[in-house]
Amino acid sequence: MAYVVTEACIKCKYMDCVEVCPVDCFYEGETMVVINPNECIDCGVCEPECPAEAILPDTEGGLEKWMELNATYSAQWPNITIKGETPDDADSHKGEDGKFDKYFSANPGKGS
Ligand code: SF4
Ligand code: SF4
């Protein structure tokens, strides 16, 4: 089992999650972060840290798309362990629907 980052993260990137992970298994894309399911030790520490409630345990149903996306992109994007600057428009996208279709980018982020 692992934790999974879902659509609510897109365009938010508050990054409160990345600093608390004891095994540094977050990876940064241009518009969201993902968790490497092979490295996540299932401690659950990150889940309550996310103000967008984007992190869920993979035991919840219906997360197949996100499990696949986390596995795929955590192998391609750079590792991130230090909280970066939150984009100015992060709050305006909180809770918005359809963010994957509108904003998802396969491009890597900067990492840190
Ligand atoms: S705190 Fe939540 S919204 Fe922010 S980067 Fe982490 S998972 Fe994404
Ligand atoms: S559940 Fe624990 S190990 Fe997994 S991503 Fe969150 S903080 Fe890291």
From TrEMBL:
The Swiss-Prot or TrEMBL record annotates one GO molecular function as:
4 iron, 4 sulfur cluster binding
**Cofactor(s) needed for function:** [4Fe-4S] cluster; [3Fe-4S] cluster
Residue span, 4Fe-4S ferredoxin-type domain: 1-30, 31-60
Q: Which InterPro entries match?
A: 4Fe4S_Fe-S-bd, 4Fe4S_Fe_S_CS, 7Fe_ferredoxin, Fd_C, FdxA, RnfB_subfamily
Where are the compositionally biased (Basic and acidic residues) regions?
A: 90-102
Q: Where is this region: Disordered?
A: 81-112
| Entry keywords, A to Z | 3Fe-4S, 4Fe-4S, Electron transport, Iron, Iron-sulfur, Metal-binding, Repeat, Transport
Gene3D superfamilies xref list: 3.30.70.20
Provide the function of this protein.
Ferredoxins are iron-sulfur proteins that transfer electrons in a wide variety of metabolic reactions.
**PANTHER family given in the database record:** FERREDOXIN, OXIDOREDUCTASE
Any idea what this protein is called?
Answer: Ferredoxin
Q: Where does this protein come from, organism-wise?
A: Sandarakinorhabdus cyanobacteriorum
